[in-house]
Amino acid sequence: MILIALLACPLLAAAVAILPALGRAAVAWAGALLTGAAFLLSLVIAARVAGGGVVSIGPEESLRADGLSAILALVVTGTGLVALWFEAGAGTSAAEPEDAVSFRRYHALAEMFLFTMLLAVIVNNVGVMWVAIEATTIITAFLVGLRRSRAALEASWKYILIGSVGIALAFLGTVLAYFNFVQRVGATPFALHWTVLTRVAGSLDPDVTRLAFVFLLVGYGTKAGLAPMHTWLPDAHSEAPAPISAMMSGCLLPVALYAILRFKVVVDACVGTAFTDRMLILIAVLSVLVAALLLVRQASYKRMLAYSSVEHIGLMCLGSGLGPLGVTASL
Questions:
Q1: What residue spans define the domains of the chain?
Q2: What is the reported pTM?
Q3: Contact criterion met (CB below 8 Å) for 166 and 283
Q4: Where are the beta strands (DSSP E) in the chain?
Q5: What digits encode the pLDDT tens for the residues 76-112?
Q6: Handedness of CA 23, 27, 32, 38 (dihedral sign)
């Protein structure tokens, strides 16, 4: 039940945000407090996992938190708590819309952003994970274009366009993974559970598995801000409200990398680690080099932070391709 409670916190905060009877301060503090509750639940989940167990609920562990999920849940709720708590404590923020309707929409979307990222990291079904990450694109597109200026709308449109291409490629990779499973194992109700895919990985077609991973790496790599699919990131970060920009850098990019790592486990069990390691190292080195070259040319500090995020996610990707010690360093 604790996993359901974790997901319920941002959903409840989003529902509270649209209540017309509450004032601006009440909406902001309700969101911050409920995000704080989600962070405390994440700590409890992490403690249980550290004790040597996996927290799960539902048929075939439909919601499941292991060590990696617990870390990402802490990252998402912790970053969200800091961003929303600071905003609530600061009172009326320049990042917030002035009119009441836009203000409520802003806070509701921010909480739904947290919900979709939490769902992505604790759901066992990779199809639902794809839906959750796709939902982050839709939600954050509205948040990036919140100011409705020409630059904000352009950044939002660019984000939608590039992000949609990436998520479409990730969808194709997910479909290939399902096709591979059905062709080799047969159709089952839980064919897209990553734990099931891992168990039967030795029976999957190696060539189809490699092809699926390429699509998934490019697709989710776009959402993670890996070069050369990173071009949406500087514009989106520079136009998004500061709390949303923080959550995009601190939460969304690692969540997209999380999706890649989940599939890496399946592919490694099928074809060995050499293939995925080479792919990750290649795209990681490219990301670090591109970010380092472009970072020093930026005048806006938010664009500098965006390229810094590209570099950081590149370093995490590099560690993930260097074996167990590298993965530990990345985390």
A1: 1-124, 126-331
A2: 0.95
A3: no
A4: 55-57, 63-65
A5: 999 999 999 888 776 555 455 667 778 889 999 999 9
A6: positive
